[in-house]
Amino acid sequence: MKNVDELHNDYRAIEERVLHFIKGHSSVEYVKDSEEVVEGGAFTWAALSSEDEIFQTQLRLDYVTLAELARHLLEHSESKHLLDFDRSSETVLSYIRQDSMLWIPSLEAAAEAAKTEMDLQRFLLTQA
Fold this sequence. Notes:
The chain is mainly alpha-helical and 128 residues long. The chain has one domain (4-126). It is built from 4 helices and 2 strands; from the N terminus they run αββααα. Helix 1 (4-25) packs antiparallel against helix 2 (50-76), helix 2 (50-76) runs antiparallel to helix 3 (82-97) and helix 3 packs antiparallel against helix 4.
């Protein structure tokens, strides 16, 4: 089993890849007439190129593997933060899968939201 320091390093590496994927390989599209329902409107992820889909698939697999290792460490230490960790991991996965609507219009904001969740996961690991 990896220790907390090794997982932190792995998180930093995958965080760079997630941010690069969101900011460099993704785009969002405005949902027509959504401002009538939500102030500022809503956005969806634009379709990825086939090359970017391959990048996305590998990133997702790598992130899931890392999150499972981190969760296992939290379980082993009987952490009281498992639900928070699971929620946060699912949020990051949603950004990687690009399977949900966004309430933020910029890729920078989406990347920052994903980074915040990964920072939370790293913090929760220090509590293990």
